[in-house]
Amino acid sequence: MTNGARVPEDAIYLDYQSTTPTDPRVVEAMMPYLVQRFGNPHSGTHAFGHEAADAVERAREQVAALIGAEAREIVFTSGATESNNLAIKGAARFLKDRRPKLVTVATEHKCVLESARSLAAEGVEVTVLPVERDGRLDLDRLSAAVDDRTALVSVMAVNNEIGTIQDLAAIGRITRAAGALLHTDAAQAFGKVPLDVQAEAIDLMSISGHKVYAPKGIGALYVRRRPRVRLEPLFSGGGQERGLRSGTLAPAQVVALGASAEIAGREMAVESQRLAGLATRFLARLDGVPGGFVIHGDRVHRIPGNLNIGFPGIAALELMAAVPELALSVGSACTSAEVEPSYVLSALGLDAATAGSALRIGFGRFTSAAEIDRAADRLASAVAGLRGTGLQAALETATYQQELER
């Protein structure tokens, strides 16, 4: 059931961590495979099938090239949720008798934490590590948690709420030394920051198309071949995708993911600089807002297209209601009855009120400088209106800062 809301004509989209619009160049690449080139890529007896299969393999090469992998190490899925489930459950179940332990992190995506919970019910020993105040993993704590009984370590490359980048190369060294596998949920990192499965000793990597300007419903899982990573499939079928993910592939979707990977590879460096400039510009226009604001997460090790900002004394939902033309998000899980504080922000040590003031603001490929200016000015005006002026805002800010520094 929907609420019947319509997008305002003057709307500005600032929720790129939630999803990205499909790049017109990606749409152009995929369209022929919806109409003219409609063959089943698994039909090897005629040209229609061969044509579709060739397109799938080309896309496999494009995805692999962006992470330093071999094409045959890419398994196409429906998205990062499926990839995370296949990687975590598949590896843990295959290795359960020899290595019954799984290590992950408190700020992981819900599908990772729920997969870990499901495995715990099956008898797997699950260790969920905390993070530091900046959202990064303490490497000494990780090293102490990983041993010769550990099957898999799962650490998100870039956090979906606060944009924090983890040190995968250092994590990979710790994991490899213990003989365990390293899985990373790279849904927010793929196509946005450089990734190298060899240099970072990554064994399994989850990818999602709709976070990188491809359509929803397509993703991939990198599965290392040498040394070979063995997984137990999630479901049975015709044995497609190396027997790990049965089912007929959708060539149009696969082609779209390949095209998005190739575009990202060409444009990533320049785009990162542009987004960093937009973030700086946005923050500069908020500098005079009464009562100030606080940025959550690491200020240096974060993707340039993400800001998670708290406005002391103002509930994020109240602020969002005051700026309906801005497409923002809150770091919270909403149900029909209540809004719970973000578990990611809680893991940083923030209390419910502090976490409840946070907005996630995401910039992307189609965000303009003019939109940044308009959005920041509108947000600053709304904050000033909700706060009032003067002493009360200053007192709220002082209390907020003391809470952060405790």
Automatic annotation (TrEMBL):
Keywords: 2Fe-2S, Iron, Iron-sulfur, Metal-binding, Pyridoxal phosphate, Transferase. Catalyzes the removal of elemental sulfur atoms from cysteine to produce alanine. Seems to participate in the biosynthesis of the nitrogenase metalloclusters by providing the inorganic sulfur required for the Fe-S core formation. Belongs to the class-V pyridoxal-phosphate-dependent aminotransferase family. NifS/IscS subfamily. This is Cysteine desulfurase. Residues 12-374 form the Aminotransferase class V domain. The keyword DNA-binding does not apply. It comes from Aliidongia dinghuensis. It catalyses: (sulfur carrier)-H + L-cysteine = (sulfur carrier)-SH + L-alanine. InterPro entries: Aminotrans_V_dom, Aminotrans_V_PyrdxlP_BS, Cysteine_dSase, PyrdxlP-dep_Trfase, PyrdxlP-dep_Trfase_major, PyrdxlP-dep_Trfase_small. It is an enzyme of class 2 (transferase). Its cofactor is pyridoxal 5'-phosphate. PANTHER family: CYSTEINE DESULFURASE, CYSTEINE DESULFURYLASE FAMILY MEMBER. Its EC number is 2.8.1.7. PROSITE patterns: AA_TRANSFER_CLASS_5 (PS00595). The lineage of its organism: Bacteria, Pseudomonadati, Pseudomonadota, Alphaproteobacteria, Rhodospirillales. Coiled coil: none annotated. The keyword Iron-sulfur applies. One of its GO terms (cellular component) is cytosol. Pfam families: Aminotran_5 (PF00266). Gene3D superfamilies: Aspartate Aminotransferase, domain 1 (3.90.1150.10), Type I PLP-dependent aspartate aminotransferase-like (Major domain) (3.40.640.10). One of its GO terms (biological process) is iron-sulfur cluster assembly.
